[in-house]
Amino acid sequence: MLKGREKQIVGERIKKIDRLRSEGVEPYSHKFELEGKRVYSEEVKAEFSKLKSEAKSGETRVVAGRVMTKRAMGKLNFFNVQDLKGSIQTVVQKGEVSDEVLASFKNIDGGDIVGIEGEVIKTKTGEVSIMAARIDILTKAVLPLPDKHAGLKDEEEKLRKRYLDIIMNEDVRDMFVAKSKFWNSMRSFLIERDFLEVDTPLLENSAGGAAATPFATHHNALDLDVYLRISVGELWQKKLMVAGYEKTFEIGRVFRNEGMDAEHLQDYTAMEFYQSYVDFETGMKLTEEMYKAVAQATIGSLKFEAYGHKVDMGKKWVKYDFADTIKTETGVDVFEASREDIIAKLKELKMEHDDSVDKWRLADTLWKFCRKKLSGPGFLVGHPKELSPLAKGDKKDPRKVERFQIILAGSECGNGYSELNDPIDQEERFREQAKLGESGDAEAMDHDEDFVEALKHGMPPACGFGVSERFFWMLMGRPGRECVAFPLMRPAKLETSRD
């Protein structure tokens, strides 16, 4: 609902649209006629940075973008045009430009998208600018932009109207460019090492590949209840290992019907890779190398701050043992302690937990208390077998598995293991998971008989690893929801009714 001054502004802009059309000017162009000549504002500034103040270059350039500010000062008028890489000032001076350009200047408003052609000059204040010889109104904005200084103050409104947040905030705009670099650098890293990018189903008959609560839906054509995947095709990629592919990876969306906080969202992008003939030790070496390469490509550094921690990935990566770390921090030996002992300690620590789950889910909650103190970089190892139904057993300690999680800034930021390829052992672990599910554990895995059948045909030893965009959130030092261009939110009308 428009109010007061905004309603007046909209009325004035609609009148301008009508006037332009009556003059034969279409305010919503099909294209920018000079697109082939267009350059970015920052390129113009860099090219003519050495031009003297109050000098003309004698060369013309073409730019296009959104009008952010406009100042009418009699004979000398200015407006700033913002494009993807920055902004540049445009000068409209009576006596120096045509009547047509002056008329176009009067018709533009903040928020309009325009194309500009003109001579590059430098003003007496030393600012590289363009003296407009041509102004094409490409799109008239009906609604005004937020106030330049006040901006969007409400955090919910920023996320709901993210397009405005991106227009008004250069750091937000740059963040999503960095996000593209993040995933592209990871993709390039793996492809350069002969990994094959694959594409696996988002809809599955059973929720497999991770311990998480799935979203359920119904497939009308097949009359099947199905799940949105909770991993990036883990069981499918392992079937590809059975098929003979030795190195695969996928980058795609994952959906988990769980809580939302700074480190968790319900749908997000993640990557998983699988490599045959290697174990988790090789996986640790490869992922450390990959994380460093991705960080360098994304932020130009191996150092960052997140969740109250300072992290330097250039330091030696340490190993944290699951049971040893918990015992050091809490005094509890999880392999010897009873379920009741762990519950008592969680209550003492005031850790939120579910009394109905089994001992090992409770032990994992105890670990989460400990990990928040660890800045990393490092690897969590020595996971109990009960918490890792798809990982290969530890040759030295049958209570554990060959699994590793990357620890950064007090958080788990990647998970990998030597893949279990013994079909008999895998079938038994699935049965145990099914029992947990029957007892009420929503995160227990389904018994995937098709996957077990594939394993019975033989899968080579392999290491698998997955990382979500949480790593990117850390590099940005922002909560997850801010790092998603359009996070899922309640409709505005529903928010209003709740208020």
Describe the structure.
- The strands form 4 sheets. An 8-stranded mixed sheet has the order 6-10-11-18-17-16-15-14, sandwiched between helices.
- It has 2 domains: 4-139, OB fold (Dihydrolipoamide Acetyltransferase, E2P); 168-498, Bira Bifunctional Protein, Domain 2 (BirA Bifunctional Protein, domain 2), CATH 3.30.930.
- The chain is an alpha+beta fold and 499 residues long.
- The longest helix is centred in the middle third of the chain and has 23 residues, at 170-192.
- It is 34% helix and 25% strand.
- The model has no long low-confidence stretch (mean pLDDT 92).
- α12 (423-438) packs antiparallel against α13.
- The chain is built from 15 helices and 18 strands.
Short key terms for the protein model shown above:
OB fold (Dihydrolipoamide Acetyltransferase, E2P), 8-stranded mixed β-sheet, 15 helices, 499 residues, 18 strands, BirA Bifunctional Protein, domain 2
Q: Specify the structural class.
A: alpha+beta
Shape: elongated
Largest sheet: 8 strands, mixed
CATH class of the largest domain: Alpha Beta
Q: What is the fourth-level CATH superfamily of the largest domain? A: Bira Bifunctional Protein, Domain 2
**Fraction of residues in helices?**
25-40%
The CATH architecture classification of the largest domain is 2-Layer Sandwich
The average pLDDT score comes to 92
Q: What share of residues are in beta strands?
A: 15-25%
| CATH topology-level fold name of the largest domain | BirA Bifunctional Protein, domain 2
Low-confidence stretches: none
Q: Give the strand line-up of the largest sheet.
A: 6-10-11-18-17-16-15-14
Distance between the termini: 17 Å
From the alpha carbons, calculate the radius of gyration and give it in angstroms: 29 Å
- Tally of distinct domains: 2
Number of strands: 18
